Amino acid sequence: MPHSRNASGISESDLSETISEPESVISFNENVYLTMQNTVISTAIYVGQARQIIEQLATNQDRWITTPPGVHDVDASRILDAMLSNAHRTGGESSERYTACAICACKEIHEQVNLARTWFMYLLWPFTARTYQSSDLVSGDATPTINNTYDSLVSASRERSSRFRTDVNRRDGYRCVVSGLWDGAHRPADVDQGWVTLVGTRILKRAVGVFTMDRTHNAAATWNIIWRYSGMSEENIQNMERLVDDPSNGMMLHHAVHHVFDKLNVYLEQTERENEYIVKEVGDRLWIHPRELLGKTITFRNHDAPTRDLPLPNPHFIALHAGISRILHMSGASEVFAQILDKYDEAAGGCKDSISSTPRPRLQNFK
Description:
There is one protein chain. The chain has helices at 12-18, 22-36, 43-57, 76-104, 109-129, 146-171, 206-209, 218-230, 234-238, 240-243, 255-262, 315-331, 333-347; strands at 64-65, 74-75, 199-202, 250-253, 266-270, 276-281, 297-299. The protein has 367 residues and is mainly alpha-helical. The chain folds into two domains: 12-141 and 332-365, no CATH class; 146-205 and 244-324, no CATH class.
């Protein structure tokens, strides 16, 4: 049963004592990275120690991450467990070692909860919340408002989005890579299919990728965690502002498949073959329709070759999307985020997935 808080709000003093700032997140990760360099202790030993910590935390009454009023609190032990369980599949042994070392570095209960809160705020939330900032989970005016962040991206993104869709559509042969449906304007005359407009889908959302590591922003903390957890190269991390609009971060999907993929309910799992993936879904709900698409094997190739050398989807991007999808649902964080986003929608007058004309309230102000 989810733990729910009855208090009327969160005080500034409480937040300052419990919420990690971006600088401290980066500093903590750097310290953990130094621990990872100790070759005397194997990854298996760190993982075993981390599992013991998680098991003990799961029985402690102080394991809850406080959330805005009216929203279920988060079990920190479930966050740590999901992160550790999915680390190797997401970023290989280096990811598993990083995750285990980070957990082992937190000896006290409040440190373990704070680590889970940090991953909850700076990793899981940005992948879920699109234009919303991690600070919107708590309070403070130090970061840009939702509207300011959104407005700064709109004009620059329109041109890039158009080019992105054109390139990805050409590379994928004007067909949905999962369903096989043709993009309407390019549908062959002899194909018996209704008019469908495919969506140029980003594997990693624009809201996650628009900020680079060297900017003073909460996203620096997010990308520092992603760097350690995903197994991506530092070069890719530094170039993410450009790569987010690169064909390597995209695929063409029918709008129904795009919706469940974008919501992190459906993901692709790589097989042993290069550029080959299996369509998977999370949890126990039936997310993808028709059902015959579930478990389907798809293979990416450049249909525009040799005219243009368009890159195929980056396997690190796909693995990270898959890992975050599994972590969100395994940890229960997806349910909490859904409640939080419902509050945003309520504050915006029920306009889901839109930006209201006035700044939305910080969630801590909801009663």
